Amino acid sequence: MDSFIRNLLQTLQGKWLQVRTFYHRRLYSVFSFVYALAGVLSLTVLIVEFGFTIPDFIQSYFPLLVRVLIAVLLGYEVISILMTSEGAFLKNLRSHLFQLVVIGFVLIQMLFYREILFLFSLEGYSYDRMSLALLFFSQFLLLIGSFIHLLRRPRFFKTGSIHPSQAFMGSFALAILTGFALLMLPRTQTGNLPAIDLFFNAVSAVCVTGLVTFDISEQLTRSGQVVTLILIQMGGLGVMTLTSFFAYFLTGRASVSTRLFLKDVLSDKGINRIKNLIRSIAIVTFSIEILGAGFLYLTMPDHLYANTTERIFIAVFESISSFCNAGFSLHTGSLMGLMDSTRGDLYVGGHMILIMLGGLGFPVVIQLAARAARPHNPYDRLSVSTRMVLLMNVILWAGGMLVFLVLEHGRTLYNVGWSDQLLHSLFFAVTTRTAGFNTLPVDSLSMATAFIACFFMWVGASPQSTGGGIKTTTFAISILHIYNQLTGRAHVEVFRRTVAPRSVSVAFAAIVLSLLVIFAGVFALVLIEPFGFMDLAFEVVSAFGTVGLSRGITAELSSGGKLIICLLMFCGRVGLLTVLTAITPKPRPVDYRYPEAEILVG
Q: What predicted TM-score, i.e. pTM, was given to this entire model?
């Protein structure tokens, strides 16, 4: 009996091997083509359903079409897992873990389809509408599986002769064009908005700026707001960082060339640290945004939402926009007037904390989290860069708060209680550092306050953060270098460490380039726009620093003026040095050096 069972198992094993061999040799290419076609059709159906208004008789065929597409996508996922070599089955199973979770979600929806619809119907949702929504949700999950298969292809990250700066800049440009195309769909807007305004909105979202030419809470539908939110998240994290996160943790692997490429994109010296760095960035980002959304949900004033669904969406949108320092808000007038509402102070304070965390930079937040988790671990010391970032932020927050309190005490803060004056002042010091939210009308600020705001917007946030500007460390190194020139020291020193000469030269290059671009931007707008000089200068600095504050002229700019602001936002988010590196031909290496010469300066 034992020998019979053994022979039977061997026979079945041989047959299964033949089936797998036949599949890989004859059927794999056919299945891959059908899968790719189903993926394209699935994406097309999603875009048509949520982007266009279609007749009812055509829409009646959608559930059947979606079910067929789900069956094809689901079948391919199952077959791709089963048809693996025997020795690599467990390894392949681990790398397909996310797809198994997707399959599980889809199967649960299919098994408990009517029960889920019944629960939604109790909340007042349309049965037919939720039925189609569940089908599209399953379809969306399986499209993620298609994206994972694309990431598994070895040539996905192969860039050839493309410089990392070009890829980084190109990824933002591609995200902007994709977002613009989606916002052009009829069902993403409540009216017929001009194309230039939709393009402006896409650039502002990807560059996490927050300058807008229309009220997104009124003139974008929920679909348009979701598109804007996705663009903000992509812009805040960085398109390459987000894509590489999927490459690592949804496929389970990345080649050496991929890691080298990402090392250059993320400006990290260690190729072996890239995976941990990306994982840490993703975990920190999503954890803070989820916790922030929960806090904003609990503290949101009652008059800001009509039902629970809207309350959840607003909380998620505001949390992501705040942490990404985007400045987009679903509240008309941003956060103005909310501090007088019940729980308004807490709601505004939640935004402010999220802005602070996003502006500190991922390395700083990761180090602080590690230090908090292991306070007595001697190896979790804060780096010199982190200590400089923290010190500069405290100085700028405290200084900005004090300056605003003094300058606006008899103006916008008139007849405001002391506690609210302090909160308004601190919020000003925080939001001008690239956030773009406002609790007071910006066009009512005095000229002196607006001028100081330009300085804070120019300095901006910290390196590798979601904010813009020249960065706090750049400003700090420049001040230290000037101090060294006055005291006669040869090297820049901070916290008993000598700053690398390259860091000093890059800092001064960033400052000079930023001033040149701001000057050029102001000059260009002065030529074509009729507004006052201070208003135009404020707009330029806000765009370049990816801040999003405006003195009320953004919507009134001409098409040429809006395109200039778009270019400034793009350069400010990507980085001037990155743009110049991407467009400058690679110099030939030389093995000689000319004699030094003293040049009179000053």
A: 0.83
